Write the structure tokens for this entry.
Amino acid sequence: MKESLAFDSVRKAYGGFFALDDVSIDIKAGEFMTLLGPSGSGKTTMLMSIAGFVEPTSGSIRLDGKEITHLPPEKRNFGVVFQGYALFPHLTVRENVFYPLRVRGVPKAEADAKIRSMLEIVQLDHLAERYPKQLSGGQQQRVALARAMVFSPELLLLDEPLSALDRALRKDLQRELKDLHERLGTTFIYVTHDQEEALSMSDRIAILRDGRIEQLGRPEELYEKPASIFAANFLGKSNFLPARQVGCDDRFVTYAVGDHRFRLDRDGVRSLDGDISIVLRPERLTLHSSEEAAPDNRMAGRIKGVSYFGQLYEAIVETEVAGDLLVSAGLDGPAPRAGETVWVGWKTNVGVALPGRPEGADEAYD
Amino acid sequence: MTDVFAPSARGGSLFGASASFRKNTAYWVMVLVPAVFLATLYLTPVISVMVRSFVEPTVGLDNYATIVDSAAIRSVLGKTAYICFMTTALTLALGYVTAYAMTHAGQREKYVMFFLVILSFWISVLIRTFAWIAVLQPQGILNDILIGLGLIERPLRLVRNDIGVIVGMVHYMLPFAILPLFANMQTIDRTLVPAARALGASARWAFFTVFLPLSLPGLAGAGILVLIFSSGFYITPAILGGGKVVMVAEYISLQMSETLKWGLATSLATCLTVVVLALTVAMSRFMEVGSAGKRV
């Protein structure tokens, strides 16, 4: 697949503070790329430097090999959907969508046809003569999308476009956005702090932290193989076992948490010295009533509390070895009950070993 | 159910009625006192002025006929309209730029600019007008500087003419334009202009197609406000015009105190009041249009 947009060691400094710190990334044409991170991580700065509103201090941004680092926004031909939609309140829906075509001097007949087909795609053809204030949040969002897409931009940049909507509507629009992406084939660059949104929509996700890309990969990779404790913490829920590596043969690596030992497949983990954390996702842990029923990696504990989420239970299991563990249990087995004594088990192919300990872990595990 | 709840509900509404009655009475008193005050001290003289314009020196429309016929009065009215128009246009232009800069300035700069705008309210209009004479007169600061720089050989005539009056009036009116313009611009979403640029508009095109149309209600409001104030302006034109530039307010005053033609003076005052009232109505219309423009 051809390269669409490339960042090459881009830095953006505000005084002594780096909003972007040596960011390099290749975004492929037609890709749905999500920039995910907490506030202040640099994700919006990154998007705005693609849009042309933020000029990098150093480094370069290229589109299909062509340098665009210092090009003003109006010369870039990118569609931008702003967080608050930024619809023009004095123009009707049709006039809003017409705006980028008018700027480009598109002939009236051609423009009309484009506006009509775009409004049909976002299902707003019946509201073309309304003003933005007369529309619901979801409808305004669709107008913003139509306006950003109608001139067939090379990229579509979306800055937390769904954050102002309620949860049910957000789900619908997530699906519609994904659908639109598939139909139009345009490269989408999507900024969000919502990990669920990122996981369900993206081809690839870049997790940002303090102006740097912490990890870049497909949603499954990021979720199954987080590269850092930050990434594991930010994307989904995790248990962190404070461990040391104590042995290694050609099939397994052996770890110890206190005196308790367990093994993970050697080809799934890095060999590490010193303090390490074993990341175990709650849904990869299983609950067993007896030691014999549990897999080799297991730990005794007592259920402290259970929450029911409709599609699953979440149990907090208090263990002597590793403190509290969060375990998800499906609805097929027996419902976990608070106070029960159980065995928590996991297979040798599910853990990830990472260097370091989560912040505040010392108090939590001692 | 009904039996249990009905009495308490009735009791509640009774209590509510008496409370709201007492509250209403208090409101009426609060409205009535200033209303009576205004009616006696404001409306009575205004009405007496209007009545006089029809009865002095003889009953009838003679005074209004004079206004229409007299070339001198026509020229005063023409001059007034011209000065008002120029003042309003210049004030709006300068005020718009200032309000735009304030809107887009950083938080601290915004406070400083706001303070400077408000500052001019603290100085009496009389003092400011005399200060302008000191600046603009032939031996004034401005002419001295220009001659000193060798830009001109003889002093420019900047007072006792239209220029002086317009400079003084624009200076006085500026805050009255800046504040409503600033208030209006504050309500314009700051992402709209960047959005227009992202859609392909140059900075200038984005301003003319997005920011300017959205600031029109503020511009109209500020314009009518300045126009109303200028139409009755007295001190500044009288001093900076130095008797050469006579606007309608000064002319009225002359008729009252010098020529003692009270009938003519009051009929001109009546005309002025009607014009101002008409402008006020237009302004309230524009304000409505302004809020309707948001199409809530």
Notes: Residues 10 and 142 of chain A are 32 Å apart (CA to CA). Chain A touches chain B at residues 51-53, 72-74, 76-80, 82-84, 86, 88-90, 99-100, 103-104, 131, 133-134, 147-148, 151 (CB under 8 Å). The longest strand of chain A covers residues 3-14. The radius of gyration of chain A is 25 Å.
